[in-house]
């Protein structure tokens, strides 16, 4: 199927003490999925939350599509608990992983879709050998670890290369994406858009989400 435009707010910079309410608000304002940033303090120099919190969130929000962005050194360790927590898409970084195909297989056997992510310094060709097994590829447009950083437009050739070689794959971008940088991402061929600060802090969340989706749709046609 041809890629669809989807906007997935990252709740990293939301009020995490009110995660369920903040998430529900984003969904009510038109979010297509939720992007949940999981960090282990090792792969990235920051900590967020893990599967117990995701499971609690799932208890409050039954139907939304959950992606966990696993910024961790051992993604294989969290597959079962995240599947049990009701995660739909399990996206992990290939950089620290020895046998990426094996982890992909374990994720899919647990019933989740699999996403493969690369940091800014990682060449996009590194993903090429895994395209057969990946459901989604994620091109980071900031150094992972923190929300609210500036968008790296020099990552766009990676997105262009992927869209050119794999016209039907879901390509996600993450980091510094918002109404001001969406055009650049859409033009390059991204169709799954993670947006944290720009959506969570927008005076009108619905308008920000709708506008970004329209720009992406325009370029997908
Ligand atoms: C960075 C995270 C991103 C990021 C998105 O490590 O993976 O999801 O927080 O937030 P903004 O859109 O504020 O960059
Ligand atoms: Zn993320």
Question: Can you offer a commentary on this structure?
Answer:
It contains nine helices and eight strands. The chain is an alpha/beta fold and 221 residues long. The model has no long low-confidence stretch (mean pLDDT 97). The longest helix is centred in the last third of the chain and has 16 residues, at 205-220. An eight-stranded parallel sheet has the order 1-8-7-6-5-4-3-2. The protein has helices at residues 19-28, 51-60, 79-84, 100-109, 125-128, 156-165, 182-188, 197-200, 205-220; strands at residues 6-9, 34-39, 66-71, 89-93, 113-118, 136-140, 170-174, 192-195. The radius of gyration is 16 Å and the shape is globular. Helix content is 35%, strand content 19%. Helix 5 (125-128) links the parallel strand 5 (113-118) and strand 6 (136-140). It has one domain: TIM Barrel (Alpha-Beta Barrel), CATH 3.20.20.70. Helix 6 packs parallel to helix 7 (182-188) and helix 7 runs parallel beside helix 9. It binds D-xylitol-5-phosphate and zinc ion. The site of D-xylitol-5-phosphate has 22 residues, from strand 2, strand 8 and helix 8. Zinc ion (ZN) binds at residues 10, 35, 37, 69, 174, 194. This is Ribulose-phosphate 3-epimerase. Belongs to the ribulose-phosphate 3-epimerase family. One of its GO terms (biological process) is carbohydrate metabolic process. Pathway: Carbohydrate degradation; pentose phosphate pathway; D-xylulose 5-phosphate from D-ribulose 5-phosphate (non-oxidative stage): step 1/1. A divalent metal cation binds at residues 35, 37, 69, 174.
């Amino acid at each position: 199927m041809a890629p669809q435009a989807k906007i997935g707010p990252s709740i990293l910079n939301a009020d995490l003490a009110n995660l369920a309410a903040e998430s529900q608000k984003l969904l009510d304002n038109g979010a297509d999925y939720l992007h949940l940033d999981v960090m282990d303090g090792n792969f990235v120099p920051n900590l967020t939350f893990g599967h117990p919190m995701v499971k609690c969130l799932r208890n409050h929000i039954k139907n939304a599509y959950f992606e966990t962005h696993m910024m961790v050194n051992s993604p294989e360790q969290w597959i079962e608990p995240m599947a049990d927590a009701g995660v739909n898409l399990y996206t992990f970084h290939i950089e620290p992983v020895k046998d990426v195909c094996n982890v992909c297989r374990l994720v899919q056997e647990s019933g989740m879709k699999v996403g493969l992510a690369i940091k800014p310094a990682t060449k996009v060709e590194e993903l090429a050998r895994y395209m057969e097994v990946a459901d989604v590829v994620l091109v980071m447009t900031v150094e992972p670890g923190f929300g609210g950083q500036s968008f790296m437009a020099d990552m766009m050739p990676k997105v262009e290369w992927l869209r050119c070689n794999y016209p039907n794959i879901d390509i996600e971008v993450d980091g510094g994406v918002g109404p001001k940088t969406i055009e650049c991402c859409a033009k390059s061929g991204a169709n799954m858009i993670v947006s944290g600060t720009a959506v969570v802090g927008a005076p009108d969340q619905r308008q920000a989400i709708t506008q970004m989706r329209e720009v992406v749709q325009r370029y997908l046609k």
